[in-house]
Amino acid sequence: MSLPTFKGGIHPSDSKALTSEKGIEILRPSGEFVYPMSQHIGAPCSPTVKKGDRVLVGQKIGDAEAFVSAPILASVSGKVKDIATRMTISGAIEQCVIVEGDGEFENGTTLVPHDDFRSLAPKECIGIVREAGIVGAGGATFPTHVKLSPPPDKRIRWIIVNGAECEPFLNCDNRLMLEHPEPVIGGLEICMHIFPEASGIIAVERNKPEAIARLEAELSGRGSKASVMPHAVKYPQGAEKMLIYTVTGQEIPPGALPAEVGCLVMNVRTLYHIWQAITNGVPVTERIVSVTGDVIAEPKNIQAPLGTSVRTMIDAAGGFTEDPAKVLAGGPMMGISMRSIDVPIVKGTSGILALSAASARKFTETNCIRCGRCITACPMGLQPSLLDRVVRLREYAEFEASGGMNCIECGCCSYICPARRHITQACRDGKAGVMAARRKSA
Ligand code: SF4
Ligand code: SF4
Fold it and tell me: Greatest CA separation found in the chain?
């Protein structure tokens, strides 16, 4: 029987074997830790500490009054060395709090553990989620307390757990499901407590049979009403719209949020953080990162304090075997090419991928041969070849009218194109062009 899936998509080599069997290693480095004040979608934080202050693990060092934002917490104990602009993992220059770690990791969180989350009102749970600094850990970094606060007229009927991890090379979610299924399921139960009418469905690609078995065993041991739904292996199965279509058969209207169709989509690590914050009083100060690629000496899954430099992460994985041609933050499909490895890991960093010149080879673009493969592959039902053409002509109004703003930048079109057209980059440029035109007319 064929497994549920979505329309379009591609089947790139998953290249996960480099780290799929590597257990999570805990890294406790010393030295400098850098905390960008914007690690989420929404308003950046302002520092709540000053140079010379001593900070503790879990202490708030940045916050904002805006609803769509999330506080930043220290991941080490130590002294605030500076508040200055630094380059971040995306290549942007942002305000950062810089802490010199003292190697003690002294705890200073103000979160309180709650043995029974059912004794808390949903609003109290959501308040703790905010104070714990939780954002979407799958990479979107949307503040989780906002996601858990849909408009009152929206009835949430499905909580879909994203365990797909469809991006090649990455295994941080897979290892979390294998090694820590209890807090993942616990976090889902908390969400089902907040939305008591919702069904909990954990969507995992069938290429992770051990994770599926661990989650099913945990669910049955707890007598949980939630279930695991294995689905076909196809990229980008983990994209929010693809998951919703796969699980419920519904398409989200352009520009609408999942709540419009009664859905919440939560990454497995986001659920882990929800459980840790509410049950154990542990805020977001660390994350698991797959450090991998064909020029990494010992590819690993490393759990490290946020603010640790990418260079330190690579050194912990044995360093480079040769000079990399490219280092990406994230996987090969949606990752961002890094300009420096002296930048900190942040809440949305799932992978560090270092590739040799042979693996990262660049192709020369040729003319479109109108084969239509990009149209078949596009999971959003767009016409990528058309979008590519109009962006190169700087016809941004035509790009917008052709649905270009719905592009999720998944990379399927570029991957499948025999003419090696840089279509995804053209779509990014098109979106930036539309936004610039909107700003100008405003
Ligand atoms: S046009 Fe956008 S959504 Fe469609 S395949 Fe290309 S990158 Fe993905
Ligand atoms: S896949 Fe490439 S060559 Fe084929 S239609 Fe699309 S842009 Fe043109």
Answer: 63
Phi, psi of 195 (to 5 degrees): -120, 80
Q: For residues 300 and 219, state if they share a domain.
A: no
Number of domains the chain contains: 3
Cβ of 387 closer than 6 Å to ligand 2, yes or no, is no
Task: Choose among 381, 383, 391, 385: nearest CA to 426.
Answer: 391
Paired sense of beta strands 60-63 and 78-87, if any: unpaired
**Does residue 166 sit in the same domain as residue 51?**
no
Q: Which residue has the tokens 């979107």?
A: 140
CA–CA distance, 156 with 201 (Å, rounded to integer): 13
Could you report the per-residue pLDDT of 262-302, keeping only the tens digit for each?
999 999 999 999 999 999 999 999 999 999 999 999 999 99
Same domain, 338 and 380: no
Question: In the sheet where 78-87 sits, what is the strand order?
Answer: 31-36, 93-101, 78-87, 54-55
Give the domain CATH number at 203. 3.40.50.11540
Q: Closest-lying ligand to the alpha carbon of 382?
A: 1
Q: Is 386 in the pocket of ligand 2 (CB under 6 A)?
A: no
Q: Looking at the structure, tell me whether residues 260 and 348 fall in a common domain.
A: no
pTM above 0.85, yes or no: yes
Rounded to whole angstroms, the Cα distance separating 356 from 268 reads: 31
Do residues 293 and 269 both lie within one domain?
Answer: no
Amino acid identity at 307: G
Show the CA angle centred on residue 433, arms to residues 429 and 434, nearest 5°.
120
CA distance 69 to 144: 9
Q: Is residue 390 over pLDDT 90?
A: yes
156 and 254 housed in the same domain: yes
Nearest protein CA to atom 7 of ligand 2, as residue? 385
Which one of the ligands is nearest to 379 CA? 1
Locate the DSSP E strands across 195-316.
199-205, 227-231, 263-267, 286-292, 300-305
Domain stops at, among 256, 280, 304:
280
Q: How far is the CA of 419 from the centre of ligand 1 (A)?
A: 16
Detail the DSSP E strand segments found in 209-248: 227-231
The protein residue whose alpha carbon is closest to atom 8 in ligand 1 is: 410
Range of the domain at 389: 373-441
The verdict on 296 and 405 lying in the same domain is no
Q: How far apart are CA 132 and CA 257, in angstroms?
A: 24
